[in-house]
Amino acid sequence: MNSKELFKIMGEGKFPPVIPFIPTIFEHSAKVIGVTPSAIALDEDLLVKSQLACYELYKHDLISVGVDIYNVEYEALGAKVTFPDNEELPSTQDVLVKMESDLDKLKVPDPEKAGRMPMFLNAVDRINKEVGNEVTVNGTIVGPFTLAAIMRGFENFIMDLVLNPDFAFKLMEFSNKVSLAYAKSFIDRGVGLSINESWIAPPLLSPSFYNEFVVDYEKQLITDIKKLGQKNVALISGGNTNEILKDMVTTGTSLLLADSECDRIYYKKICQENNILMRASISSGIVEDGDEEVMKQKAYEVINDCIDYQKFIFGCGIVSYDTKPESVLKLKNIVRNYKY
């Protein structure tokens, strides 16, 4: 049974014969083919090769294509990104919106032409044509709060929310336009989609700020994406999101991530009440350490908490570059060999 068949069963409200296994594989895919994260971040062929190599090795149940996922839209807006020649991820120190007038100078980039957007669009398309008949392949976009905070600088943006909320809202409205344009290009290629929004997790952002300032923009983005024909959109935030979970549900997301720090029982209750896929995870650090007994103990804690929900998916955080492939395979075997 392939991955799409597993999710079809879950969509029908039935328990799948095995637990779906979805590790988050970005820069780790570079390690698998023996290159640096920057290499796959700059070379479409290497990006495709690395993701397909990981899928051939792990046969995980969803492929999310990305590397430096929070830089792509920002670079297309004009930011300079540094690409190290070692195992570090590409990064940027640029702040494009230092004053209000800077925002007026920015234009929504054309995803078919701007920066590395076309490279990621083409890579996702090629991967989907290769294996999309058996597994969902997702493109990734940045959520409105995170992209606005990157453009403005996090501390500046928090101050804007307090002292100049109209400008903060204008930033998030612009961010949504950027993300929606990118989303449309992925949708046009017939692939899946996830929104990465990890800067919303407490204590980085207070739950009251999330409720008052942010959630409506995420809701608008997901609504607009669905109007383009995308039925399922995942809103992904790492960290402990217990306190904002009920607000996140209202966005229309089809999947929520209960990261290793979250209260899984509470998450399961909310996801069950709203018929949402729940991806519950162990820490990727445990996978990197590679101790099979520890992995088994932690994995079983997750599984035992969630196994009675038919829309439960097992995951781990972003698999690090240094994680040995055999550790990921051990984890998959632990999950697959669990008996209902």
Can you give a write-up of this model?
By secondary structure, this protein is an alpha/beta fold. It contains 16 helices and 8 strands. It has a single domain, classed as TIM Barrel. Helix content is 51%, strand content 11%. The strands form 2 sheets. The chain has a 4-stranded parallel beta sheet with strand order 1-8-7-6. It starts with a helix and ends with a helix.
CATH architecture: Alpha-Beta Barrel
Which of globular, elongated, flat, extended, rod-shaped describes the shape?
globular
CATH class: Alpha Beta
Structural class: alpha/beta
| Rg, alpha carbons | 19 Å
Structure summary:
The protein is of the alpha/beta class and 340 residues long.
Question: What's the topology here?
Answer:
Layout lengths: L2 H9 L9 E4 L3 H5 L4 H6 L1 H15 L3 E3 L7 H5 L23 H6 L11 H15 L4 E7 L1 H9 L1 H10 L1 H24 L3 E5 L10 H21 L6 E3 L8 H5 L5 E4 L5 H11 L2 E6 L1 H6 L2 H15 L5 E7 L6 H12 L4
Parallel strand pairs: 1-8, 2-3, 3-4, 4-5, 6-7, 7-8
Helix pairs in contact: 4-7, 8-9, 8-10, 9-10, 10-11, 15-16
